[in-house]
Give the backbone structure.
Amino acid sequence: MSPSIKPLNQKLAIISGSGDLPLRVIREATFSGWSGVIIDLYDIHKNQNFKEWKVFNFKIGSISKIFRKLHSEQITHIVLCGGINRPRLNEIKLDLKALDIMSKIAFKGDDTALKIISKEIEKDGFKIIAPSEFIKNSVFPKGHIAGPTTIPNLSKEIKRGYGVLKNLSKSDVGQSVVVQNGIILAVEAIEGTDEMIKRAGELKLSGIGPVLIKAPKVKQDLRFDQPTIGLKTIQVAYKKGFSTIACKHSEVLVIDLKKVIALANNKNITLFGF
């Protein structure tokens, strides 16, 4: 879908984390007529030329400098996309605004922390747009969309895993679990989905491979930290012997949906939207 907001007299800041999602957002935002700045937190865009965008490199602890730059560039809207790891306090230099924010999010889960950060962004006068607003046909469809159609007890595995995810939402933990034969092999923590898949792969049982179940937390703000899968998810799941990836339809973002479906079919990985 394309953003409902018209970019006339408005400028966008793309705050870019790691992974493939930022490049997709940059490309689609440009196509939709947006221009503005890219705040590159992980120095992944240094060798790329974006005609409509100024690129600035900032460390994640330089919040005051980032906000000043956004105001000086007359930014009106912000999209946060890509992986952003919560920094270790002993590894980064924090300016005063970063210290203030970190004091508020200390000992908080990711979702609570992001809600606090969003309030700080909006308090400074910026409007936040979800990455999914820029990417066409980007949400996980409903029902069977790839791979084998007959996975024994799939509905039971999904019910078991999704029930665990909903219960974990109360503690603001995880967006993914791995289930096999009703047994929870792994719960996503700070390591991210791909590393959790690798960990679960070492614990898998014999028979039909494990099922990855992915969904946002209950009442999660999907403007940021929206659960996402892509080609790498399929590749890692295949290497670790998974049978299925099941996602909450319309709420999980898929990078390059057609390519993901094609690869899942090629690797005999079932994709199912529940």
In short: The first helix runs from residue 21 to 31. The chain has a mean pLDDT of 87. The longest strand covers residues 12-16.
